[in-house]
């Protein structure tokens, strides 16, 4: 009877080889499960790295395109601004030839303003004419005629100019510019498109009918 009992105990005893195989299988399965997320993460990182240059290229291209478009727009705006600032060459308007009227209608010793032409028509006591540009030679402010002081006055920085536009009080560095004029059939014609700079007034600048 004892040998039979020993045989049963031997059959019920765990097999070490089987347990080791099971443990290895479990470890392998766990390793595979752990490796799967890592592999997926690595693949995603690789795909992102491969896509990054293309993304940067597209981004850089868009930035370059936006920069070029902005530069073109700015150039167009600047060009439009320059065209706006340039004097027009239409007769009767600033930048063109303006007819001031009959020479005989301007008494000697007077100053007459022509806002449309941006000049003052000065007639000297001896009858000579001078078209004085109203732009101050300091910073370009529009001067006005002060009959009480018998001078042109800049409202911006206080420069004064005498009857013929010569500087009396700085900071203006030179006399007011003049415009070419001529008397045609008794009419005073002033070309406001070609201002002429000068340091001081000279009698040779006067035009006579």
Which helices and strands occur, and which strands form pairs?
Blueprint (H helix, E strand, L loop, with lengths): L1 H11 L3 H70 L11 E6 L7 E5 L4 E5 L5 E5 L10 E3 L4 E3 L6 E2 L5 E3 L8 E2 L1 E4 L2 E5 L18
Give a short overview:
This protein is an alpha+beta fold and 209 residues long. The chain is 39% helix and 21% strand. The strands form 3 sheets. Strands 2-3-4-9 form a 4-stranded antiparallel sheet, with no helix packed on it. It has a 4-stranded antiparallel sheet with strand order 5-6-7-8, with no helix packed on it. A 3-stranded antiparallel sheet has the order 1-11-10, with no helix packed on it.
Can you characterise this structure?
The protein has 209 residues and is an alpha+beta fold. It folds into two domains: 2-85; 97-205, Rieske [2Fe-2S] iron-sulphur domain (Rieske Iron-sulfur Protein, 3-layer Sandwich), CATH 2.102.10.10. Helix content is 39%, strand content 21%. The strands form three sheets. It has a four-stranded antiparallel sheet with strand order 2-3-4-9, with no helix packed on it. It has a four-stranded antiparallel sheet with strand order 5-6-7-8, with no helix packed on it. A three-stranded antiparallel sheet has the order 1-11-10, with no helix packed on it. A hairpin with a 2-residue loop joins strand 10 and strand 11. The longest helix is centred in the N-terminal third of the chain and has 70 residues, at 16-85. It is elongated, with a radius of gyration of 48 Å. Mean pLDDT is 78; it is low at 1-14, 68-77 and 79-84.
């Amino acid at each position: 009877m004892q040998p039979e009992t020993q045989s049963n105990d031997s059959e019920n005893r765990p097999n070490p080889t089987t347990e080791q195989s099971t443990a290895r299988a479990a470890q392998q399965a766990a390793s595979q499960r752990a490796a799967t997320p890592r592999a997926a993460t690595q693949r995603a990182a690789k795909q992102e790295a491969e896509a990054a240059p293309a993304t940067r290229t597209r981004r850089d291209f868009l930035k370059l395109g936006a920069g070029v478009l902005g530069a073109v727009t700015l150039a167009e705006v600047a060009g439009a601004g320059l065209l706006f600032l340039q004097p027009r060459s239409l007769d009767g308007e600033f930048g063109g030839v303006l007819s001031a009227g009959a020479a005989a209608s301007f008494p000697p010793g007077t100053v007459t303003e022509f806002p449309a032409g941006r000049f003052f028509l000065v007639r000297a006591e001896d009858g000579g004419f001078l078209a004085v540009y109203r732009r101050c030679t300091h910073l370009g402010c529009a001067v006005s005629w002060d009959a009480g002081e018998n001078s042109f006055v800049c409202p911006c920085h206080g420069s004064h100019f005498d009857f013929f536009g010569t500087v009396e009080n700085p900071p203006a560095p030179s006399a007011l510019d003049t415009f070419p004029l001529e008397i045609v059939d008794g009419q005073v014609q002033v070309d406001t498109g070609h201002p002429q700079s000068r340091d001081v007034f000279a009698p040779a600048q006067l035009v006579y009918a």
